[in-house]
């Protein structure tokens, strides 16, 4: 199972490199495969072409990525290119019942995506829990005119893995009984395609390495550091930033970070690196955090030096500044507040919600509703109350305030855009932090329990995009909202997409119920609603240790 993602080459600052746009074509048969964790256990995973972990995809700016996906599962599937804007190609965003109906079993779909961005991304299923079951892989898009100079590149995906199938875990997390819901589930780590603890990164003295870190997990954050080595952060979520020195970086689920590491000039010792997993979701004193390590190897057999620091130190998003120094967007025209809560709902399940509405899949993909609704496409009601839909005008500046009322973290990911992080703060202490003059931009932000974040973006990408927590179980339990952006400017639907809908008996026109016109007020009466007294509070269960608060550091995080 030891897969190594490495690309070698000298990239010069400002060097004018001529590249010829190419079609990067892949044929993916998505199917069950045997996943072996040597010495631990074997179980079924969702793989590609008989492989798991799935090899990464490598491309250049200006290429066109073509993936011919054939579904050999017993349920629909889809592929989402995480972090790609899909400008003009919203119907290839791969979100089940948002931009497509999914690929039915024994059917195919071709994703054809012009690559208009550079950076570190990944591809994963956006259907049910298939990403947690292994359908995920790195996607690297290189810039022919790199901003930073380095000698070699290492792509290091970070993943969690479980003995228990994801659908069984979801049933546990839906339980209204906290004794069931918080029953410990032991995770395992996969670092760079290898069982955690077995990974070796080979360094040569004096060379500079770009390490591309990708959190492809379903539940767990990661903290990465290398003993005896300094790192310089140069990219977050596809956005190049000014070099920022760090001893460690934290990655929430879905986030990516590139760091430059210059190798030491001696081969006398090897060094331990950490890719520690942690979460504030589960009470697991023995397993949280899980201190996974590997080796930075200069010489085979040399002694291994370890980092003896007692506390983790991490880079704050608001300490980073994009290289292009895009100023703070002003003239905000649309303000949206999303209050994230969780609790027991009327169907006797534990769910998550924005503004008391837990996301429920519509009967017609929201993008097809927008395309077929004509003038009514600007009416949020036609998309269904439970899709938490907001309609945005083309080129509006949108400000979203997300308030996390839970006691655990949520990594929120926005499709179709990156956002400026304008402000973060603590709900209890009312302390807040503002960015530098040019705020950092990301597509995924971690908002810790009892905290909030203010985000801004320009609605310059017509499409239907979701904002959701990237913890698999939180999305499945309803923590999502929909942005219908300039519906009058949506592109045409690929024929294969319509055919896949028809094959499953799913309408390609109409409102959220597949009917014409606005939804009647009682159309969603049976959707789950929250019990007012059942919300989780900012205060965790008795005896809970606020792991994520302490791991991120900062006295304001411990009350």
Question: Could you explain the architecture of this structure?
Answer:
The protein contains 6 helices and 35 strands. Strand 16 and strand 17 form a beta hairpin. It has 559 residues and is mainly beta.
Uncertain segments are 1-17, 539-559
Shape: globular
Biggest sheet, in brief?
A: 8 strands, mixed
Helix fraction bin:
under 10%
Question: Rg, please?
Answer: 23 Å
Category from helices, strands and their pairing? mainly beta
Q: What is the CA–CA distance across the termini?
A: 43 Å
Tell me the number of helical segments per DSSP (H or I, 4 or more residues long). Answer: 6
Number of strands: 35
Mean pLDDT: 88
Fraction of residues in β-strands: 35-45%
């Amino acid at each position: 199972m030891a897969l190594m993602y490495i690309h070698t080459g000298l990239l010069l600052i400002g060097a004018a490199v001529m590249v010829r746009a190419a079609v990067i074509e892949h044929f993916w048969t998505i199917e069950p495969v045997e996943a072996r964790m040597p010495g631990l256990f074997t179980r079924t995973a969702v793989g590609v072409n008989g492989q798991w972990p799935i090899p990464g995809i490598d491309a250049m700016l200006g290429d066109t990525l073509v993936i011919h996906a054939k579904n050999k599962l017993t349920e629909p599937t889809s592929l989402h290119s995480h972090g790609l804007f899909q400008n003009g190609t919203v119907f290839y965003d791969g979100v089940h019942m948002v931009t497509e109906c999914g690929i039915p079993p024994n059917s195919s779909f071709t994703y054809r995506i012009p690559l208009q961005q550079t950076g570190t991304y990944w591809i994963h299923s956006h259907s049910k829990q298939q990403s947690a079951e292994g359908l995920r892989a790195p996607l690297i898009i290189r810039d022919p005119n790199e901003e930073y100079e380095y000698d070699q590149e290492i792509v290091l995906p970070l993943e969690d893995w479980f003995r228990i199938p994801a659908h069984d875990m979801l049933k546990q997390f839906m339980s209204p009984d906290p004794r069931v819901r918080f029953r410990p589930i032991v995770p395992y780590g996969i670092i760079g395609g290898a069982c955690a603890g077995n990974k070796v990164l080979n360094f040569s003295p004096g060379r500079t390495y770009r390490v591309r870190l990708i959190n492809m997990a379903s539940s767990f954050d990661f903290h990465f550091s290398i003993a005896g080595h300094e790192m310089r952060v140069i990219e977050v979520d596809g956005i190049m930033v000014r070099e920022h020195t760090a001893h460690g970086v934290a990655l929430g689920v879905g986030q990516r970070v590139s760091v430059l590491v210059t190798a030491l000039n001696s081969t006398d010792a090897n060094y331990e690196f950490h890719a520690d997993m942690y979460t504030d979701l589960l009470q697991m004193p023995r397993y949280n955090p899980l201190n996974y390590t590997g080796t930075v190897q200069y010489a085979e057999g040399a002694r291994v030096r370890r980092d003896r620091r007692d506390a983790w130190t991490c880079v704050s998003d608001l300490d980073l500044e994009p290289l292009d120094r895009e100023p703070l967007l002003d003239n905000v025209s649309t303000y949206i507040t999303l209050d994230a809560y969780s609790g027991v709902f009327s169907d006797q399940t534990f769910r998550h919600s924005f503004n008391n509405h837990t996301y429920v899949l519509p009967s017609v993909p929201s993008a097809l509703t927008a395309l077929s609704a004509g003038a009514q496409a600007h009416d949020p009601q036609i998309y269904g109350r439970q899709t938490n839909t907001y309609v945005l005008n083309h080129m509006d500046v949108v400000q979203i305030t997300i308030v996390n009322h839970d006691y655990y973290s949520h990594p929120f990911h926005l499709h179709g855009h990156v956002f400026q992080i304008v402000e973060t703060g603590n709900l209890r202490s009312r302390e807040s932090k503002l960015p530098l003059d040019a705020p950092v931009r990301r597509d995924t932000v971690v908002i810790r329990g009892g905290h909030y974040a203010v985000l801004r973006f320009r609605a310059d990408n017509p499409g239907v995009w979701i904002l959701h927590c990237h913890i698999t179980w939180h999305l499945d339990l309803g923590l999502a909202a929909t942005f219908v952006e300039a519906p009058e400017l949506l592109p045409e639907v690929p024929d294969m997409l319509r055919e896949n809908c028809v094959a499953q008996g799913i309408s390609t026109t109409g409102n959220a119920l597949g009917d014409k016109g606005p939804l009647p007020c009682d159309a969603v009466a049976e959707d789950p609603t929250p019990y007012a007294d059942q919300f989780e509070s900012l205060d965790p269960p008795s005896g809970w240790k606020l792991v994520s608060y302490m791991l991120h550091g900062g006295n304001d995080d411990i009350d």
